[in-house]
Write a structure and sequence with these properties.
With 113 residues, this protein is of the alpha+beta class. The chain has helices spanning 3-23, 57-69, 71-81, 97-112, and strands at 33-39, 45-51, 90-95.
Amino acid sequence: MSVTIERLASLIQRELAPIVNREVKDKSFGYINLTEVKVTRDMSYANIYYTILSDDPDMLKKAQQAIETSKATIRMELAKKIRNIRKIPELVFKFDEALAYGNRIDKLLKSLK
């Protein structure tokens, strides 16, 4: 990845975190934590990885639906914050499985002791 793409990903993550938590209307699943942002080489898509505190599949589905319904508003608010690029990338939200996987391995290791 080039330096400008890395900087853009970092800028998007920094500006997007408060916007997502402000714009998502359903707060039953709690705070949404953005773990990583990856921008494609042509800067047309930004993959945003997020986690929530719950491991419940219903809460995960609820969070995904809430994010998807407010995606257009989130992108518009991001465009207001970031003015130095010509086109804001299309936002693709994906649940970050790494934290859940790590927690599961941690539970397995504790059960072995």
